[in-house]
Structures are given as structure tokens and as C-alpha cells.
Amino acid sequence: MYGSEPLLLVDLHSLNDETTRVGNHVFEFMGSIALARKLNRTLLVHTTAAERMHREHGELINIWPDMELTFSNDLVSFATVFDFFKFHCCRYYPAIFELKNCSDSVILVKLRFLQSYKYVASLGLTEIRHLLGTNETLTRIAREKLITPEKLAQSDHKLCVHSRRGDFLHTYHAAYSDTNFTLPAIQFVINKLNSSVERPLVIMIGDDLEWQTEITQLLKKSSIDSVLLPRSKEINSPIIDWQFSEMYCDTVLLTGSASTFGWWLAHVSKGQKVYYNSVYQKKKRFGDMFIPEDFFPPYWISLKLERSQISQILPANFKG
């Protein structure tokens, strides 16, 4: 049916959970691609997961180039099953890669979130940018229609500030973006920019347009040029933010740093200079589910707010 090559079937938790969003989906999908290559197996994704990717994220034209590589429940009976659904969201489990010791021709792996840079690091930035490539319409809008080229040309450095409020305001675990951290953190990062940067532009990107507008108004009172990245009237896709980041964001500041969407926006950014809020959880409610050294890449820089002042903290895995 599929030939004689060894197969890796993946059952993806987030793509079978209607409450999850694109950041979660991409972590699982990218991690599955990396895992299949490490195991030297042909990757097969369940038909229902592939259909959801096409239905909700059809603009990602490269991430699933061959839709024949899917499987139905009929193939499961031939597979040796490995269940990693018990693993926590945001930490790295190297035991997954020990599956290379399994010689069975068909294995089914149940994967949950895979939210660690370590799972996808082997793919490399160039390939990840390719896999997250979009159709021409969305790419054109990101380049020309969100912020005018004239406005972008007036600045010599774009600081993209990603915020996550929305559901984070009400979740039990994740810390949301707030004004107390965001304003001094923006000023801190601007002060850190090279002295050759004379005209920085702060670009607010996020899911709470009213709050972001308040931030831009407060920044302008401090003589900091800032704009709000608008929603496109032509296409309703949050992925356009990732495309914009790849094209324009010289520096990224993550203010709601547990956001997986923000993670990918920073990961593909043009300048590859990333700062993030060290407070990613509410009152340590993630417990051992979230290991910052596994979630945040080692060249990203952590910022801490203390007594209304921002300080820079180099995480344990920092590699500058």
C-alpha cells in the first residue's frame, strides 16, 4: 500500500483538539517532521489532522506538500504504538528520539504539543521559513498593505512588540501582556539598540487592538514613534503576522512570552534578535510543565521587571 519503507504514523494532540490554535499546530507538525527525519522514516499524519490543517491554515502552502502521505485508522492495526500524550507541553523529552532503536516497519507515535525549540532545531531557520511560506496573496499583503512602504522606509530599525491578552486574561496558567511590563521593556530595548539606530519604529502586534492602541498613544507621548499592525481587510489570517515579521522585524519583544504564536513570530523574524518577559506564568501555576530553558532558544534574552525597572537576565542556556 505505502511501499516497503519504514513508516512513522503520528497522532497529534493539538490537531485533534478544537480549542487549540495555529502556534500549537505548527509546533507539533514541525516536531513530527524533525522526528521522522531523525528516525529515517516516512512521515504519515492522520487524515483528520491533515484535513484540519488544510481547512484552517490553507495559506501555508509548503508545510504539507504531499497530501497523499496520510493514513486512516485502517493502518493502525499494523503499527507498534508509543504513547507520549502524558508528556507536558513545554519541555523537552529526549526519550522520543530513542524510537530509532525500534526496528518495526510501522510505528504509531502519539505526540502532545512538542513546544520546545529542541524538537525543531534540526530543521534550521531557512527550512522553517520555507515550510511556513504562504500563498502569494498573503505575502503581498504582508509586504505592501499592512503598513505603507513609505512609513517603513522612514525608520532604520523595526522593533516588533508582540502581545497576548485575549484568552490569557482568563487562563489559569499563562501570564498575559500588561502595561507595567510592556512600556519600560520597550524603552529598555530601544536604549539597547546600536547608537547607529536613529529612527526606531515600534510596531505593536497582537490580539487586543484596544489595549495596543493605548500603548502606542503612551509611547508617542514619550516621543517614541509607534504604529499598530492592523488586521488585513483582504484576508483573515493571523499567519500574516509571521510573514510580516520575517520581512521587517529587526528586533522582537515578547510581552506575553508563553504564547506559541508569539514564539513563531520571533523565531522567523528578520533580525533574529529576541527579548522576552521572564514572567511567563501566573503564580508558578505551570509547575514542572514549562521549562524555560527548553521553550526559549538559547540566544533569546530574558527581561525582568522589578520596582518599575527592567533588568536583563541571561538564562541558564544563553548563548550570545
UniProtKB/TrEMBL annotation:
One matching Pfam family is Glyco_transf_11
UniProt superkingdom: Eukaryota
| GO BP annotations, alphabetical order | carbohydrate metabolic process
Name the GO cellular-component terms.
membrane
Q: Does the keyword Glycosyltransferase apply?
A: yes
Q: Does the keyword Transferase apply?
A: yes
InterPro entries the UniProt entry points to: Alpha-1-2_FucT, Glyco_trans_11
What is the name of this protein?
L-Fucosyltransferase
**Per the UniProt entry, what species is this protein from, by scientific name?**
Pristionchus fissidentatus
